[in-house]
Amino acid sequence: MFETIKYEVKNKIAWITLNRPERLNAFTEQLNREVKFAIKQSSKDETVRTLVITGQGRAFCSGEDLAGVTDDMDLGDVLRQRYNPMLKELDHCEKPIVAAVNGVAAGAGMSLSLACDFRIASDHASFVQSFVHVGLIPDAGNLYYLTKMVGHAKALELAVFGDKITAQEAFDLGLVTKIIPATEWSEGVEAFASKLANMPTKAIGLIKRNLKASWDVTFEEFLEKDAEGQRLAGLTNDHKEGIQAFMEKRKPVFKGY
């Protein structure tokens, strides 16, 4: 079904693996399209409660495959037609999405990681705002997310100088949730994703929805979103299970609905 990614659903987790290791998982039109389709499929699949995006081989994603860039390309149209639909699909997904950054995340590869909800990184991973080195600006939603994570001044510094930052530096900046030793990578990623997959999925989706809403509404408007979100959360079976487990002094078993 897929040629540039691997897709597998296992134990309530959808694993989306960028699979062009010979090109460091660089983006092509087909890769953009297949990632978009896999995210959409995961969003609709009721058995999926967490998504993990990672890379095959030694890189997470090195950005756009420059071998396919020509002088007559309209780079704005490339973003509108290829990257923007993929990023919108990510944004619309109300299940938790983990970027498992196994190696370098450069250019649009870094943008992809920023668009995910959580970034866990191998201690061999690195992040590079490589756009400036080819006379371009960070794209694919990069600065939209980056500024909110690290602030205006640091986002400008990272974008203008384009220096490589290590996993530890990214963690210190708040870009990375957790660093996992390369020797424990597979087990560590699965443990992190499994924890999310067994949490109240609908509540997580509502948390994501309200966090996004907080960026551009008034306080009064946000209070109403608080109320509506809590109304919806209160109707879930997971809420009922959480209350019952609390009363019975046991660990809740959430089903994701």
Automatic annotation (TrEMBL):
<dbReference type="Pfam" id="PF00378">
    <property type="entry name" value="ECH_1"/>
</dbReference>
<dbReference type="GO" id="GO:0003824">
    <property type="term" value="F:catalytic activity"/>
</dbReference>
<protein>
    <submittedName>
        <fullName>Enoyl-CoA hydratase-related protein</fullName>
    </submittedName>
</protein>
<comment type="similarity">
    <text>Belongs to the enoyl-CoA hydratase/isomerase family.</text>
</comment>
<dbReference type="InterPro" id="IPR001753">
    <property type="entry name" value="Enoyl-CoA_hydra/iso"/>
</dbReference>
<dbReference type="InterPro" id="IPR029045">
    <property type="entry name" value="ClpP/crotonase-like_dom_sf"/>
</dbReference>
<dbReference type="InterPro" id="IPR018376">
    <property type="entry name" value="Enoyl-CoA_hyd/isom_CS"/>
</dbReference>
<dbReference type="InterPro" id="IPR014748">
    <property type="entry name" value="Enoyl-CoA_hydra_C"/>
</dbReference>
